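Hey, sorry to bother you again with one of my protein questions. I've been staring at a protein lately and its backbone has me curious. I owe you a coffee for this, so here goes:
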Amino acid sequence: MTQSMYQDYFGISENPFSIIPDPRYLYMSQSHQDALAHLVYGVSDSGGFVLLTGEVGTGKTTLCRALIEQLPEDTDLALILNPKLTELELMATICDEMRISYPRDTTSLKAFFDYLTHHLLHAHARGRNPVLLIDEAQNLTTDVMELVRLLTNLETADKKLLQIILVGQPELNATLGLAKMRQTSQRITARYHLTPLGIADTYGYVQHRLNVAGLDTQVFTHSAIKAVYRITHGIPRLINSVCDRSLLAAYVEGKKNVDAKLVARASDEVLGSDGYPSGMSVWGIFILVLAFTMALFVASFDPYDWGVRDRIGYWLKTYMPNSEVQERPTVETKTKSEPVVQPPSEPESVVEAAPEFVVEPELEPEVISEPTSVPTEAPTDGAEPSITISETDDA
C-alpha cells in the first residue's frame, strides 16, 4: 500500500522500477542493441548455435522477452526457463513446448529423437522455423549440454532444422571452455557478452523507466544519478532496487526530488552499509579473519623457525620498552647456537683463573731481600782492596 501511495505522490501509474522483466521498460543501450541483434541472428534461418552471456541483473531475460515479442510469424519457439533437467526431461520439455505428441511412458532418448526429427522435417516442409531458447543455461550439466550439441546435427543439405540460443551467466563460458566441451564450443556461430550500463546510460535508463511509467519531469538530480551509478556499477537490477527505495524515501520525507543523500540511505537499506551486496562483504570478512588467524599462529608458534617471536620481542623492547614480552626458552637458543658461536665451558674457566695466578709472583721480590755489599774506595797506592763485612754478617 505504501508503494501505491508514492506512485500517486509522484503522479505515476505504476512502479517504474519493478524487477519483473517487462519488455516495455527495456532500455536499449548500445550493448543491449548489439545483444538483441545477436538474438535476432540466432532466430534467422542461418543462425545455427548462438550464445549470449552477461552478469547477473544485466537484462538478459528482459532481452529474451523482447525477442519473443519480435519473432516472425513463421517461428515456432520452445522456451526453457529452468534447465536443471536430465537428458530425458529436456527432450520431454522440448516436445511439450513444440506440441509434439509422444507416449507419456517414453524412457528412450532414441524415441524422443525420432519424434523430434519427424516433427522438424514436417515443419521444414511447411516453411516453419523452429527455435530452441534456453535461459539460465549455466545450470546445464555437461551431459545435457552434449545432448544440445547433438540437436544441432538435425539438418538438411542446406539448412539447420533447429535454431538454438543459449543465454546464461559468465559461468557458461567456463563450462564451454572445458576440453571435453570443445565440440559444442566449435558449433557456436555467434557469441556476445552483455555489459553493465555506463554513467550516461544509467541516467538514460532511470529517465526512460520514469517516462514509461508516466512521469515526464526529472525526479533524480545529477548527483543522485552519480551516486546510483557508483553504488550499483551500472547493473540494471540493482538500479531498480535502489531507485525504488529512493522514491519511497522521498515520499516519506515529503520531497519531490531525490538527491544523493536519499540514494545513499536507500542503498544502505537495500544493499548494506558498504553499498555492495551482502555476499561480497561476507567474503571480505572471511578472508581478513583467515589472514589474521594465520598470522597469529605463525607469531605464536613459529613452526618454521623464522624467528618471528624474537623479532617481535626486539621490536617491542625497542619501541615499546614498557611492554612485557615473553621470551623464548633459553634451551631452544642453546641447541642451535652453542655448536657454532659459543666455545666450550672449560676454556672459559682457565682464562678467568689465569690473571689471579700471575699476580702473586710479582709481589715476592718485594718481600725477600738479599745482602748487598758496599764497595769501598779504591786504594791509591796499589794495595789490594779491603772488604768490609757488615755487623749483620757477624751475627
